[in-house]
Amino acid sequence: MRYIHLTPLITVLAGLYMPPTLADALRDSGEACDNEEPCITSLPQITVTGYDIATGVQVIDQTLIEQLPTGEGNLADLLRINPAVDFSRNGRGSANSGIMRPEEFSFHGQPYYQNLFMIDGIDTTSDINPGSGGDLFSSPSLTGVIGGSSPQGYYLDVDLLEQVEVYDSNVPASFGGFAGGVVSAKVKHYDGNDFVNLRYGIQRDEWESFHIDARDEEEFDTADSYSAEYTPIYRKDNYTLSAQQGIGEDTGLTLGVSRRSSNFLQSYSDGLDMLHRVYYDDRIDNLHAKLDHRWHERLHTSFSLRHSDRSHDGLTSTRYDDMFTKSHSSWGLGGNLEYTLDSGARFNLDMALDRMSDELDSGSNLFTRHESLEGILPTQSGGYGDTNQQQTAFSLSPELELAPMAWGNSRHNLIIGGDLKYTESFYERPEGAFFREYNCVVDNGSNGCIDQNGSGDSDFGDEYLARAFDYGAGKVSLDFTTAALYLDDRIERGNWQFRLGLRADYNSWLENLDVAPRLSATWDTFGDGSTRLTAGANRYYGRSFLRYAINDVIRSWNTLTYYDTNGNITKTTTYADLSRSNNLATPYSDELMLGWAQQLGPFNSSLKLVRRASRDSIRRNEDDDGNYYYDNSGSNDTDSITWTLDHAGHPLKLAGTETVASLSVGWKQTESDLQSDDAYDQEPNPVYYKGRVIDGSELPAWDYNIPLNIGLSTITQVPAWNLTWSNFVSLRSGGTIARDNGDNYTDSDGSRYDIYEDYTLADLVTLDTKVQWKPRLWSSNQGYLMVEVSNLFDQVVSTKISRYDSISDTYTPGRKVWLEVGMRF
């Protein structure tokens, strides 16, 4: 299999130019707009994402969000254009592309669950169990927390967003509670235009090219899985409504509603080897409403409602076959006040109440095994009951930005602010779950039981209750307050700009006071903005989670009881809480960065070097007495280089077309032991690697560690046709990971260690392309037609990292097609 071709690159570069058969007259053939009607025939101005090297922020506006090929419209799909962002090697697969879960992502090799997610200035990150990043379609745990959670409290639909700011380095002091990066989203607000926009999209399995190991083709074709491992038959639908309406002169209402759903086939065999076929539903709902009011030119307020819910079906197991529904849901209310003082200072206040939850709603809380049914019906049935883990937070964030002032030869822009957040969180099994095992009084082998009650058949009257396992009801609660104060001074002196920032955070649960400096300096070398050199030194303190408080306590809710044939208890086993108290410091990441921004003619270039040294990362350990505890023994070291080049503001105009392009390159090297789906619940051991025994943290990170990624995006507009063509070429180097080679090393003391050796994965080049057409249908109405093809040339690589030939290859997604139509009124 050939993994890299030049064709995608050539095709996109060709997109910089349009065929010469387009007459030059097309440049002026656009229809003029009536002064009394909104102009909808002209295309929006071409936008290229903007980078500010001094603050390490990338701004992606509403126009660019719509123009880029963003797949299913999740945040992760949008951030693929950022060279500092990385994704899991196992985040997407060709065999199970029918599922809807958005991907997680990492900044500069840091743990994906240590990012900060904000909506309209409010922290909306989930701190329940964000490191449990895998999906949960089967076998929910009876002794642990609910899997399939996420640090993204809200699974946002980017089509409903006005702007996304992405901070990866030199992050200002106004942001706290992260050791990775910051994603700050702003929901659309009323902009003075009244409209209703309706869209419908569809994707089907017939429009996808699947890549499956030959040994798995039969299982794949029949969807022989109940855990969404194979989804050969699926249909995805997308419904979006967005609207704006003015209410009087100073008030406007904005509404955004979307549903992205998938329906896919699964099949399994029960205890009697009978085949069952079932369709799973998997959907993500979004609702965002905002009411804006301008009281006068200096006072503006807004109130917002937000909701996101991902719910999907699942099957307990092939034996205990009750269905369940797993959901990751959030509701929130928000308010904002902006006031400009007479002095020119600006006061901003954000308030919010958010509730986030991961819930498991099962068909029943009783599962049984009846030996009398052997050979007749499946002997096992039932479900594992309901569980809920929830976080409710009230947030208050005031900020005062003073009017710029001159002190001597320098000019200062001082910002003073704070964050106050009260959080209530809990894990709960509300009613318990119960297992009952019934054995025959006299066993009759594969024919069930020998008749005891005179019925002549093997039935329940021929059994006795042999074993009862009660997974008891219980609740673990954690309530705490976090408070922060920050100061940020932007200073200009001659050709120099300085940012002196300081942030102090207090966590009442851990009782930690963390002080983080945020410092940077930029030299405008020639005083005209053409050449800017930047250096920064910053510390970022991360987050702590409900999972640490739960630890092993759920185990103590369980009781196992044995009975004899007369119903007498013969043995009772209870389970101790093996949790040991935690005394945790707050994880942190120290950052050093150097940057060079250059403007040369129409081109803008930005080169950045970032060094991250993260310490006190949290992971789970077991002591000599078998007790579990969390400590700060994890670490991460990453070196990153990113480079971007674009010609924003200077599109290439040719034959009635306008084209802009953006090139990005990212390189990094990471050592970390905290990158798997289980994250902080890992218990890594020392290993033998490259001739010596080392701690697992010294191994190259096996995930979220693509050493080289190159991205090229182009956006071409044809105004005369109301047409936009966008492309994104991605080259991702496979890189080298360390894996267990199956042998062991024995040292002089007789201790044995697994031997790890380097393994190189294949490189991958893909091209995503998107064409949008917005024809004018009536005087004030506009149509919409979009065709998006991801991985146009169907290039894939294997993501298998196991050394065993018996383990099948898994592949990255092949070519997929997405169609969307709509109307704007």
TrEMBL record:
Its main location: membrane. It comes from the Bacteria. Residues 1-23 form the signal peptide. Keywords: Cell outer membrane, Membrane, Receptor, Signal, Transmembrane, Transmembrane beta strand, Transport. It is found in: Cell outer membrane. GO terms for cellular component: cell outer membrane. Coiled coil: none annotated. InterPro entries: Beta-barrel_TonB_sf, Plug_dom, Plug_dom_sf, TonB-dep_rcpt-like. Residues 52-181 form the TonB-dependent receptor plug domain. Belongs to the TonB-dependent receptor family. This is Outer membrane receptor proteins, mostly Fe transport. It comes from Marinobacterium iners DSM 11526. The lineage of its organism: Bacteria, Pseudomonadati, Pseudomonadota, Gammaproteobacteria, Oceanospirillales.
